[in-house]
Amino acid sequence: LPDEDTKIDHYVLEYRKTNFEGPPRAKEDQPWMVVEGIKGTEYTLSGLKFDMKYMNFRVRACNKAVAGEFSEPVTLETRAFMFRLDASTCHQNLRVEELSVEWDATGGKVQDVKAREKDGKGRTASPANSPAR
Q1: Using one digit for the tens of pLDDT, what is the confidence trace for 50-59?
Q2: Which terminus of the chain is more solvent-facing, meaning fewer CB atoms within 10 Å of its CB: N or C?
């Protein structure tokens, strides 16, 4: 981090996708994407996608006249975690289908349970059917 009395005006962040772990290779396929005008020493990069293999990042400080050298590149991986939701055990207000999940504020499953309780076919007092399960 710069000292308090430096004349740094802003930072420039560059990043790109890569198929390699570690520092950038001499022959990279992807161009550097540029984010200019970053005023602080923290920045959140949005729009990244999971499971993109690896990404290289580098940053440099600039004042009003000149830009400094780039930092040593850092390589990160955006790993994906695959999972499935089970329609029979999910929250009662979730509607789970093959490739989609929707929130049903009316509580679709709650309505079904209440209807069964009126018919005498609802939940019993057994621990297996308790709401905490």
Answers
A1: 666 678 899 9
A2: N
Give the pair of three-digit tokens for residue 113. Answer: 């349970």
Residues 13/34, Cβ–Cβ less than 8 Å: yes
* Type of residue at 29: D
Q: CA quadruple 15, 16, 20, 25: dihedral positive or negative?
A: negative
Neighbours of 104 (CB within 10 A): 14
| Tokens found for residue 11 | 């930072």
Partnered with residue 7 across adjacent β-strands are: none
Q: What is the pTM of this model?
A: 0.53
Q: Are residues 15 and 71 in the same domain?
A: yes
Q: If phi over 0 gives left and psi between -120 and 50 gives alpha, with beta otherwise, what is residue 37?
A: left
Q: Are residues 95 and 46 in the same domain?
A: no
23 belongs to a structural domain: yes
